[in-house]
Write a structure and sequence with these properties.
By secondary structure, this protein is mostly helical. It has 13 helices and two strands.
């Protein structure tokens, strides 16, 4: 019975995900049309780079990476006698836990520098429009697995957990834009919206490392990471150390290059681990001004 319910949920969410993909295509066409109406190129230089990066992110996830993720989580699921049944009554629990999984996966991508080197690819776009949805990251399935495996050990059915958690990127197709403006304050407080996801993509000090939610802002409120968009601080998109290139290879390697340099420059094993697993912005950068500084004093923004 549980397996049948799980398959039904997967079927319905697959239909939803397909519809979301078609919906995103509609918004991409609309974006191009509106840009033309505004006297701009239909697709910006960054937009074309995002299209080129598309196969490494959403397409790869949809075809096989999510299948590998689910298969890996089932290995942990098999290790525990705990089971959270899949019924109509427990689906809201799976939804909230899926949001929890998405929150911590997303937060880890911002607060562990090795993971940020990957996740920063998505954040490096300085033009905030619907094409940013295509600039996903190639290694995110790895840290999804690491952050979601404990939930499989608690008995959450991996297939249902993943399909709920993965609906949020589909919803966020609507959020990567400035064209929709603000919604009602209660909606902005509860749900992820274009304005509070714009905060998430901004590199202003006020906005960095905020608003990790997928569909809801619940866990941001619980863990103190929610930040509304303030009128006095317009968002500056991109990362603090901008790529300033539409070359897909440079976009992919930008933060990995800096990470590699800092790892080689760290003087001992403890500090090398600190470079890899410390928080971006709190790890040493071996630039010309910092070469002779102790690591603890040579803090340099990695974002």
């Amino acid at each position: 019975m549980q397996e049948e319910m799980a398959m039904q949920v997967a079927k319905y969410v697959t239909i939803y995900g397909t519809g979301a993909g078609i919906f995103l295509l509609f918004w991409l066409v609309a974006e191009a049309y509106l840009r033309r109406r505004e006297g701009k190129r239909a697709v910006s230089g960054e937009g074309w780079a995002n299209f080129i990066l598309f196969p490494l992110g959403p397409l790869a996830e949809g075809i096989f990476l999510n299948a590998l993720l689910i298969a890996g989580l089932y290995q942990f699921y098999a290790l525990t006698p705990l089971r959270v049944p899949v019924t109509l009554w427990t689906l809201p629990i799976y939804f909230i836990v899926g949001e929890f999984a998405q929150y911590w996966f997303h937060r880890a991508g911002h607060e562990v520098r090795l993971l940020w080197a990957d996740h920063s690819i998505h954040h490096s776009a300085q033009t905030y429009d619907f094409t940013v949805n295509l600039r996903h990251t190639p290694f995110s399935t790895v840290y999804r697995f690491l952050t979601w495996a404990p939930l499989a050990l608690l008995g959450f059915e991996p297939l249902v957990l993943v399909v709920f958690a993965m609906t949020t990127p589909a919803f966020q197709s609507l959020c990567h834009t400035e064209r929709l403006g603000r919604f009602h304050p209660w909606f902005e407080w509860l749900f992820v919206s274009p304005s509070n996801h714009a905060v998430h993509h901004a590199s202003n000090p006020l906005y960095i490392d905020r608003n990790y939610g997928g569909l809801l802002n619940i866990w941001d409120h619980v863990f103190g990471t929610y930040q509304r968009l303030e009128e006095h601080t317009p968002p500056v998109y991109g990362i603090t150390r901008q790529v300033d290139s539409n070359n897909p290879v440079k976009i992919l390697l930008h933060e990995f290059r800096h990470l590699s340099r800092d790892f080689r420059g760290a003087p001992d094993g403890r500090q090398k681990l600190g470079v890899l697993f410390g928080k971006p912005g709190e790890t040493f950068e071996m630039d010309k001004a910092a070469k002779d500084m102790p690591v603890a004093e040579g803090l340099e923004a990695a974002r």
